[in-house]
Amino acid sequence: MSDAWRNEFLIQWHLTERCNLSCRHCYQEGRTRTELPLDEIAGILRAFTATFNAWKEEYGMVFQPRLQVTGGEPLIRRDLFDLLDFASESGFTLSLLTNGALVDDSTADAIAAREIDLVQISLEGGSKTHDAVRGAGAFEKATSAARRLSERGQFVSFNMTLSRLNAGEVDSLIEAGNGTGASRISFSRLVPSGSGLELADAILMPRELKEVYEELNQRNEPAIEVVCRDPLMGLFSARDGRPASAKEEMPVGGCSAGLAAITVLPDGTAMACRRLGLVIGNLLETPFRELWVESPELWSLRSRENYTGRCGSCARWAVCRGCRAVANAVSAGAGKPDVFADDPQCWLMRAD
Ligand code: SF4
Ligand code: SF4
Fold first, then answer.
1. Is 80 exceeded by the pLDDT of residue 33?
2. Which of these, 87, 10, 82, 95, lies nearest to 43 by C-alpha position?
3. Buried b (16+ CB within 10 A) or exposed e, 201-218
4. Are strands 261-264 and 156-162 parallel, antiparallel or unpaired?
5. pTM of the model
6. Largest Cα–Cα distance in the chain?
7. Which one of 324, 338, 346 would you pick to mutate in the ligand 2 pocket, going by the greatest count of ligand atoms within 8 A of its CB?
8. How big is the CA angle at 253 (ends 252 and 254), to the nearest 5 degrees?
9. Which one of 207, 231, 233, 319 has the fewest beta carbons within 10 angstroms of its own beta carbon?
10. Is 276 in the pocket of ligand 2 (CB under 6 A)?
11. For residue 97, what is the enclosing H or E element?
């Protein structure tokens, strides 16, 4: 199999829980976790590389690892650029997720001088909405950061966490993107956990989410790419390129938890997805390959039989599975946390 065919494998690494902002929908509940030093992070990254090399040799499966550094606010870490340099030299594609507030001219120079594939800046809509969620002055800082980076040729994407607070502000986001030279805007759903719990009433009803996603699906902006990787986007088309089947017993697309991604916390704790909160071990203690192959938590996410509701019998299960994080958070809010609950925002199940 040629190297031209590569599966991307996402390693989302929360380098720190420290942050310069206190956003209303933040899913972090505390800011006390120890941070691994650079040499221990490098050791874990080497273990990822060794595993991908072994899978290529043993099974002919070629993976391109993407290291997505985030936080808290990753730019708070003084050794961030040393880490990015190490990862880049080790063959990882790099993404940097930031709130943008610390991106002054010299930081923008340092970012743009590196091979960073994507800088993603969170933006919640127009300035009023963004500042209401992220604090006064945050919009100006985020858009200035995007402008500085774009001027230096850096690929920048804005990301909006969709809820009732901002579902009507897609145009504001596009306007901000066009005004700053950003190349892409992307969307994710609000997960009502952590600080986001207080916004539980703000999650969109299935019909409302469908309307927003329909609009995104039809958007064709001349100067900016509009992207939404939510599993539910597959409902609009055969984007996943596969016919749906009620028989498949293993996931092949949709939610990446247990399939093509892993989240690492500052102390090396590994999770299927940060927003899901399902701990599978610690990469300082258990090598990545062992965790990935043997974790009962990951196998439970991969097994259709655990999905007892409509998701479990849905013809689209193997290419969707809904968002497990939203399912878990909403069922927890109702007093019965269930990772395998139906995705409460799927409009296949509910008309409201
Ligand atoms: S029922 Fe579940 S698996 Fe089927 S489309 Fe909806 S969220 Fe996806
Ligand atoms: S649980 Fe939700 S946020 Fe996490 S990988 Fe799946 S779809 Fe994405």
1. no
2. 87
3. ebbbebebbbebbeebee
4. unpaired
5. 0.91
6. 54
7. 324
8. 145
9. 207
10. yes
11. strand 93-98
